[in-house]
Amino acid sequence: MDKEIKELFASVIGIKIDDLNDESTPKNTNNWDSLNHLVLIAAFEDAFEIDIEPEEIAFMFKSFCNFKSVVEQKLVNG
What we know:
Blueprint (H helix, E strand, L loop, with lengths): L1 H12 L20 H15 L5 H7 L3 H14 L1
Helix pairs in contact: 1-2, 3-4
């Protein structure tokens, strides 16, 4: 699942998948700004048929590791 999350994330914001890792943040990742973060949320909700809560959106904006953990949790817990 990690690969699918990375591929979609990189594709949506227009970066190379190799430029993305758990330490990636909006500060050190090209194109990851607040607007693209909302685009990412919508893309992940559509692609994985999940609902992301408003409080999770802010948490996910801190790092790719946080982003990935919320998506994985949603996929496991339904």
